[in-house]
Amino acid sequence: MINDDSHIYVIFGASGDLTKRKLVPALYSLYVQDLLPEKFALLGVSRSDFTDMDFRSGMKKAINAFKEIDDTSHIDSFIQKIHYQSIQFNDASTYHPLRQRMEILRTDEEICGNTLFYLSTPPSLYGIIPQHLASVGLNSQEDGWKRLIIEKPFGYDLESAMILKNQLLKDWQEEQLFRIDHYLGKETVQNLLVTRFSNGIFEPLWNRNYIHHVEITSAESIGVEKRGGYYDTSGALRDMVQNHLLQVAAITAMESPSSLEPVAIRNEILKVFQSLRPIKKEDVKTNTIRGQYLASTIKSETIAGYRQEEGVDPKSVTETYAAIKFYIDNWRWGGVPFYIRTGKRLPTRVTEVVIHFKPTPHFLFTSGSLSSSCNQLVIRIQPDEGMLMKFGMKTPGAGFDVQNVNMDFHYSDLTHQRIPSAYERLIYDSMKGDSTLFARTEEVIEAWKFLSPVIECWKDEKDVPLYGYPAGTWGPETADDLIEDKSITWRYPCKNLSDDGIYCEL
Ligand code: BG6
Questions:
Q1: pLDDT tens digits for 296-308?
Q2: 71 C-beta neighbours (distance < 10 Å), count
Q3: Residues whose CB falls within 8 Å of the CB of residue 374, separated by 6 or more in sequence, listed in order
Q4: Which segments of the chain belong to CATH 3.30.360.10?
Q5: Where on the phi/psi map is residue 194: left (φ > 0), alpha (ψ -120 to 50), or beta?
Q6: CB distance 133 to 115 below 8 Å
Q7: Ligand 1 centroid to 246 CA: how many Å?
Q8: Residue-by-residue DSSP string for 274-285
């Protein structure tokens, strides 16, 4: 292998939204911070018939619109590194000119054979493009590394994921595959690892003896926007639970890895996936809730229901809300319920993990507003990134009234630190060949296996209801029934980490 970090970054699907909004702005941020190799070229590939100049000017606008870093003084020099090649993805013969174009670039820019191929295309092409690349030798690592970054979704269900896995592994090695799950690139998701494994105080409590249940929420206030066509074939379970939220759950639940080596971390994550208790078909009705948003009026604005959205079947039964209860059958977590919920058109955008600790065995202070202690550790992934601990404190004055108070840390207090975007982090890691924050094939397959009964039942069974919920509410009311203890509801988080309850600012 050539010891040289120069490379060509090839983006398939270069005329798409992800390239404009995330990938190129993230590459620009890396460039400004001097984190790109000196010899570097970005080659956009898609069906559109652009010249280099057209593509550069589109990317310049995109960087200005979606930049993640304030400094715009390097845009002109950065876009000189951008090139474009049009291709018919399904047509094997167009991969020869692509290869030739890359060879010319390598000679002109003095770049070795290292190449990253980023697949940001419709998922139906994830099997075909790598196969065509291999047919012209672009998977060969003789002249430098070749890596393939694959966006989600990796398959549509267990069967299609297995087919895709076999297609890819025919021509590529597992070490060459980087399956992106942008949640793993979030600084605050990585901080979960640091919180757990750099602080001695949490580990003794992080188990079934002290934790009552774990709650993971990822709420969005937006609807499906312009992605109705894609979303209607996906739904919340495939779009958010199968990947992002199960990964967050795995990091919350994993054992300490033996080192920070990618293999060590990913082995521990995989073990969590392998320990997920299978949901029996007959339990799907009681352990899952699905919902779909209905039209409503929010702050005098009329909001369309899901079935009225562009690209959505007016009779669609696709869920825009999913909640699921499950268990991890191992010594640490035996008997502790995990609750995950996600939805579109909920009151606010928030992602967080809440560790609910068990109450004290006997609660002495019965005169105040609290009838038991309810310590919670809230790990806020976004927005108002940070952590909050809730604990009981004496209300000043006579007697022993106890109230719940917050102790919080907000990333925004570290004013001098910019939080890099998830894509910036993941793109950088892929350039360095660090696969720690990428999902391994087995993890993805295990996640599909786990959700298969739910997918099957939601597809077939008419008696697993699809509840409507008005846009701007917290999903089907019945979701509270999922929580085993009837005195406990989901947390109702607000934009600000320290607020919760119904009166907070959304
Ligand atoms: C994407 C989903 O993977 O994640 C979208 O396809 C969703 O539907 C998005 O909106 C949420 O990401 P984030 O980073 O805004 O929480």
A1: 998 888 999 999 9
A2: 11
A3: 356, 357, 359, 390, 392, 404
A4: 184-482
A5: alpha
A6: no
A7: 14
A8: HHBPPPPGGGHH
Ligand 1 mutation target, pool 23, 227, 244, 341, most atoms within 8 A of CB: 244
pLDDT in tens, 237-295: 999 999 999 999 999 999 999 998 889 999 999 999 999 999 999 999 999 999 999 99
| Neighbouring residues of 68: CB distance < 8 A, sequence distance ≥ 6 | 25, 26, 28, 29, 420, 421, 424
The residue whose CB lies within 8 Å of the most ligand 1 atoms, and thus the one to mutate among 182, 187, 221, 384, is 182
- CATH number (3.90.280.10, 3.10.20.590, 3.40.50.300, 3.40.50.720) of 7-151 reads 3.40.50.720
Q: Is the CB of 446 under 6 A from ligand 1?
A: no
DSSP state of 237: I
Kindly give the distance from the C-alpha atom of residue 269 to the centroid of ligand 1, in angstroms, as a whole number: 21
- Where does the pLDDT of residue 1 fall: very low under 50, low under 70, confident under 90, or very high at 90 and above? very low
According to CATH, the topology of domain 184-482 is Dihydrodipicolinate Reductase; domain 2 (3.30.360)
Q: For residues 87 and 48, is the Cβ–Cβ distance under 8 A?
A: no
Please state the atom number of ligand 1 nearest to the C-alpha of residue 234.
6
Ligand 1 atom 15 nearest Cα: 220
Q: Which residues are catalytic?
A: 244
Sequence ranges of the chain with CATH classification 3.40.50.720: 7-151
Atom of ligand 1 nearest to the CA of 243: 3
DSSP notation for 128-166? HHHHHHHHTTTT--TTS-EEEEEPSPS-SSHHHHHHHHH
